[in-house]
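Handoff note, outgoing to incoming analyst
You'll be picking up this chain. Sequence as last confirmed:
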Amino acid sequence: MYPLVVTMVALVGGCSKASTSSADIVGIWQSVDGATIKLENTGQFVVTGLPGFPVLGRPHQDERLSGVGRWQLQEGTMGREIKLVFDRLGDRERVGVRILTSGKGTSLKLFIWEDEEGGARYEFEKK
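Most recent structure output, in case you need it:
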């Protein structure tokens, strides 16, 4: 079975490739409704309360997902991106999720397109 790969996208200020380091990413990120992504400097992560729809599709719109796994910062087509690989997410094993970064320093944000790219965003800010 192939692992499910889901793309979570964040704008990179004007599509510039601003240099974002692991030190910028490590920490706890939270959405307005309380979902969190905790990225540890060991390469581990913990996600709680993530909405199911943008990650697993419309059939999961009423679900809130939680899971653990490994993360890494890598270069993507729109700049630096974070690759999350969940050990298990819902009823799926080895789910991969990519998140791009937006801004830098204190304005650094992560977000998921809620529907189509360019539409509403589900944002995370560093706590």
